Predict the structure.
Amino acid sequence: MNRCHVLRYGSAMLYAASLPLTAFQTEMRSSYDGFSDVTASSWHGWQVLMLGWAGILDGTVAWYSNPILLVSLNFRAKQKYSHLLMSCAPLLLASTSIFCREIWNDRDPPEQIVKYGLGFYLWLLSFTVFAWVAWVRRNELLSQRDRVATKTDEQGVEGDGW
């Protein structure tokens, strides 16, 4: 098993480990009849995975990095740059979650994110590792192509090395 496979499995394990952990903690402040109330709650990774699609109603697109990650798993590394692009797209979308400060709900006011948990950071790290694997694999393929091109040039055979 080469290091790309090990890192890819590591990325999947980080993703799986993020699901039962706390992704973030929220507070919802409300006031009525002169009284104010603060309701705190914790959101686990699996809850965000199940309900995060509704974030599009609030303009949050970070959740959609999850299905794009599944699509990018089907891209083969030999497809030159498309694999690298499809591996970086989920990371870019997931990174937008850092700017999210509130969660959409059907009540007013929305829940404010007050703290990110370990589950959030493991989730984000899994996308980072996945994109890094694509970069490493791309570099391996390019060096392999260069070795083949050098070998064919030495033998006097024309070809593009792919």
The radius of gyration is 22 Å. The first helix runs from residue 3 to 18. The chain has a mean pLDDT of 82.
